[in-house]
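It would be a great kindness if you could assist me with a short task in structural biology. A protein sequence and the structure tokens that stand for its backbone fold form the material at issue. I should value your view on which stretches of the chain appear to form regular backbone elements. The record follows directly beneath this note.
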Amino acid sequence: MRFLIINPYYSISETPSPPLGLAYIAAALEREGIEVKILDLVVFPYSRRLLESVLKDFAPHIVGTTAVTMTFDNAIGVIRDVKNIDPSITTVMGGPHVTFCAKETMSLFPELDFIVLGEGEETITELAGAVDEDGDVSGIEGIVFRGKSGIVDNGPRKSHIDVDSLPFPARHLLPLGRYRSLGMPVSMTTSRGCPFKCIFCAGRKMVGAKVRYRNPQDVVDEMESLAAFGFRQINIADDLFTSNENHCLKVCDEIIKRGLKLKWTSFARVDTVSVKVLVRMREAGCHTVSFGVESGNREILKRIKKGITPEQVADAVKMCNEAGVSPHASFILGLPGETPETLKETVEFGNMLKEMGVSHGFHLLAPFPGTEIREEKEKFDIKILSDDWRDYHANRAIVETSSVTRKMLDDIAIGWEDKFNGWLGYIRERIKSGEASEEEAWPLVNLERIIIVYDLMMKKVVEEKGCFDIKASCDRTKVLELFAGIAAETDNHKSDEILKVIEYEIGEGNLILTDDDGICALKWIDYL
């Protein structure tokens, strides 16, 4: 049995990290003796020819993909291509989007054979086993499929996974080198589950209300293994890392006991932090904590069932500052009850937090399938303006309230982007004048490097233009200058900029220059 897993494309602007959920699925399949390959279309450019080649070489029995709402169109497009190339391949999709649009999706897309609901590790291994044997899937919980008389929904699994029973994610199947080249963080989790009922989030429905915590020793074993890959940062992606003080402290104590020098971040609720916990987190290597603040208006916070107050936000920020941890706050604009006055209140609250040392950003409400806000939009006075899933990236308005228009929301988002671009322009001028320190210049230098690296990757410039026959021992400087000049013609960047980037990437161990009897070639280090 061979199983191909595909990570659908989404933009570099979404700050992608190696796909953790797919690595968990792959590990569960491998444990059952199934041969697995992951094709990651976030960092490899997709083409029909690429897919044909992978299907021919790997010859999978099953092809599976995942989708959040924003990536669904890309995911189903690849599934459609799979079926067109080889109709005998079984196709399956999981993830939050199809979990909450299962029957509708199956009705609209006949090329999709199965949908996996919710947590997928146990379900997908059962499904793969059934496909490999007699094809009887009637008793498998957590799937939706086509039966003889129509679409069959077997319903969600009756119990949630024991997180300590899961194997470590199969990151050896991921192109970690490409993410490291892009300077992206690598993520992990220490728990699953969320007891809170925020109306804009489907997380509770996806992974359950009861929080299940991993063994702290296993958590730190995984962190230690990630540190060896050379990523600049580890993101703990738990919704509620700080909600259980005992668990949080045990993880931190284990890091400190082992003497690990890690840089990591986490998410937290403002009502679950304390100076004691934050100090221990800082001592263990945590440098930033992100809070979902959502709104500066207390009535909106009540309406969305967030369960926090602006005063608690300010208190959490003060505790972060006292502990030496950088606080970050995220806001959602366009929530139920939003008015021009509440928008102003939230923007002003963000500015107040900025004065307290908080970095912050705004997103616009995206009413995802499965959320209470979508299912009861009339009750919440929300008008949904688009069901084009590609619009669900939260950077432009796709909702209105009775007193807030799309333009009002977009104006704030665009204004925020303009401020950010203006700040980058200011740094650029200071770099040109020689006034910028290395630390001040780094955000712009790093961003411009990421853009060039990503363009080189997604245009396959290294693969197609990075080989040279110079008839002699490989002269590194000559080859790199040759490549930079050729790449500039393809990549719309200046050759001196490209040269700096590739020299940096070689220095970081993300690119190598080989010499085979005078044939010199640049190659990405895809797998670590």
